[in-house]
Model the fold of this input.
Amino acid sequence: MDMENRKEQIIERALVHIKKRGYLSFSYDHLSKELGLTKASIHYHFEKKESLGLAVCDRLETGLDQMMIAIKQMDIDPKEKAIEFLRMRLSYIDLDEICPISAFQADFPYLPEILKQSVQHVTNKELGCVAELLKDIHNNEAKAILLLSALKGALQYRRAVGGEIMETISKQLKELLQ
Amino acid sequence: MDMENRKEQIIERALVHIKKRGYLSFSYDHLSKELGLTKASIHYHFEKKESLGLAVCDRLETGLDQMMIAIKQMDIDPKEKAIEFLRMRLSYIDLDEICPISAFQADFPYLPEILKQSVQHVTNKELGCVAELLKDIHNNEAKAILLLSALKGALQYRRAVGGEIMETISKQLKELLQ
DNA sequence: GTCTATATCAAGATAGAC
DNA sequence: GTCTATCTTGATATAGAC
Done:
């Protein structure tokens, strides 16, 4: 198969696995079986697991860039834009998944150094995105931290207490931005 | 060594490891080396890893009970009691740790069934504790979810962005309860 | 109650054929 | 680009001696 397509396909599946299991717990074996390949073939495209982890972080950053472009072009009240960001972020996360950035953070102390740096970068980028969308509101950095922490904490709670929790949280976060 | 003391000691170390690495990632080998024992000796006290996981959940529940007793006896404004709960919960979590309940939640889909049940139980118990302390405030269940999600999400953020985030969150959570 | 030794399995990674 | 085969490591768990 064409190399760029295959690489993309592997990154895509790895991202799903990270959202479901976390970075440390997913394996080349899981991945290869789903893609109809062998572990060795994955290693051909991404020599080490950390290379694949880095590629996934890059992809998350690209996704954030695209979301910001889309949101800035929307014809909605600026005060709605942070909420729209959270809504779009959630749309990429299934019921049995958590935020991939949270997953990396949970494994953080045991990541290879270079991957830690990428995780820090995408973490700060996402915080910066929300803070930027809140720029007309007082105390935007602190508010961005509160919104994202609550959203991602709730995604983990969802695993144990069920999906209704997300509506409870979303409602309150919207109130917080009134 | 006395069996009850040894069991307690193992549970205590396991809890620390879960806060640092998560349930799936800590091992009897890590534990045994710290305690000056062998893996086999840990297996004598807790035949399977899931038995140890269950004991850790029990310990967390006991801790919640004790905290609630202590807080109810405190001579402070009822409106301060939820904040005091969060403060006490935080005091058991080091700078390089996350909330152990969050750690179990992150691993949730890959836990043995019986341990899932224990994690659900302690999760709901903690939510119930905060909701109870908020009982004079409107919408207490929803507020409890918001407070705990934000606190625990922030603990994971701390790993990637540093400790200052906790003061930002604490300050905002206090404002939310005014 | 703790030990040594070992069985079993899964993971990351590499060598070399096609 | 993908394969088979293999190495190495680390994990859960058990058997049996002391």
Summary: The longest helix of chain B spans residues 49-73. Residues 1, 3, 6, 37-38, 40-41, 44-45 of chain B lie near DNA strand C (CB under 10 Å from a C1').
